[in-house]
Specification:
It is a single chain. The protein has 339 residues and is α/β, with parallel strands linked by helices. 51% of the residues lie in helices and 11% in strands. It contains 15 helices and 9 strands. The protein has a 7-stranded parallel β-sheet with strand order 1-4-5-6-7-8-9. It has a two-stranded antiparallel ribbon with strand order 2-3. Strand 6, helix 11 and strand 7 form a beta-alpha-beta unit. Helix 8 crosses helix 9, helix 9 packs parallel to helix 10 and helix 10 packs parallel to helix 11. The longest helix is centred in the middle third of the chain and has 25 residues. The radius of gyration is 19 Å and the shape is globular.
Length: 339
């Protein structure tokens, strides 16, 4: 993984999968049931370590990603958060600059300290050949949940705010830049070898707003991390960025960029891969389907991106309906691949 992030071209690309620890695994569901609530699982270092390690025991991935959640930051800032069955995350929405007064950095690290302990435990328990990835949500994506109060299909409230009061919304983004930077720095100090910044809802912004709310905040976080750790590898994932991806890569300073499922491989090979390592981008639904169709697509991705630095992954996270045996087939296909 580290060699690929240093832009080496390898006979076999390293691989890991977004949401590789999760509900598709029966052992995860058992641990989750024992933990109590989802937040209890995130804040229990022993159990969070266990679920991080579970997919490695089955599939021998080249990297493990810390088990946590992108909404731990608003929780640590003081925004009430709950995970409700059938609804997902629900927060007390913040929709104006005035309401930002309810948020504070004062308890950030005390709330998130169990996450740092999980990273520390993993840095000792992972196999030596396995890279430990820390992560955080990007300011724009975390803000969408904070403003909408839950997942959204149309993002009406947050878009109304950026159009009607961009200066007020910038205050929320600035708070998230600071807290996310501090969070990632603590993960690095605890033993994370790579971090990924997830901007899952980057693609809902129109072109003229993308740089301000996606590229610029990510660039500020990376600049701050690199001031302390100059060569530290950072992966960006602005899902749905489309044609804005080239500018994102150029202006943020990411070491690697994760391609969503819709990113054209030939375009990525000629326009993106010469500049940074690319990661991706099998459709998660093909992983649900499995079989020869999946294997053929894996081979196509490997053949297209294999002449440059590449980390194999999905175009987004594993979904709960995924049969574990299909992940096994994917892992076997990748382990047996030779350039």
């Amino acid at each position: 993984m580290i060699r690929a992030l240093k832009k080496e071209t390898l006979d076999r690309p390293p691989f890991w999968l977004m949401r590789q620890a999760g509900r598709y695994l029966p052992e995860y569901r058992e641990t989750r049931a024992n933990a109590g609530s989802f937040l209890d699982l995130c804040y229990n270092p022993k159990l969070a370590e266990e679920v991080t390690l579970q997919p490695l025991r089955r599939y021998n991935m080249d990297a493990a990603i810390l088990f946590a959640d992108i909404l731990l930051i608003p929780d640590a800032l003081g925004q009430p958060l709950a995970y409700k069955e059938g609804e997902g995350p629900v927060l007390d929405a913040v929709r104006s600059a005035k309401e930002l007064a309810s948020l504070s950095l004062d308890n950030l690290h005390s709330v998130l300290n169990p996450v740092y302990e999980t990273v520390d435990r993993l840095s000792s328990s992972l196999p030596e050949s396995c890279t430990l990835i820390g992560f955080a949500g990007a300011p724009w994506t975390v803000a969408t949940y904070m403003v909408e109060g839950r997942g959204s299909k149309d993002y009406v409230n947050i878009k109304k705010w950026i159009y009607s009061d961009p200066d007020g919304f910038q205050q929320l983004i600035d708070l998230l830049i600071i807290s996310t930077t501090e969070y990632l720095l603590k993960q690095i100090e605890a033993g994370a070898e790579v971090v990924q910044i997830f901007d899952t809802w980057a693609g809902v912004l129109p072109d003229e707003e993308f740089a301000k709310w996606v590229t610029d905040p990510t660039a500020k976080i990376i600049t701050a991390i690199r001031a302390r750790h100059p060569d530290f590898p950072i992966i960006g994932f602005p899902k749905g960025a489309g044609g804005n991806l080239s500018q994102f890569v150029k202006e943020t300073g990411v070491t690697a960029v994760s391609l969503d499922t819709a990113a054209p491989l030939e375009w990525a090979k000629t326009e993106i891969q010469p500049h940074v390592t690319v990661q991706g981008n099998l459709d998660p639904i093909l992983l649900v389907t499995g079989g020869q169709k999946m294997v053929d697509r894996i081979h196509h991705i490997l053949e297209t991106l294999g002449s440059g630095s590449h980390i194999f992954n999905l175009g987004h996270g594993i979904i709960p309906q995924t049969p574990p045996e299909n992940v096994g087939l994917l892992a076997d296909t990748l382990h047996n691949w030779k350039q």
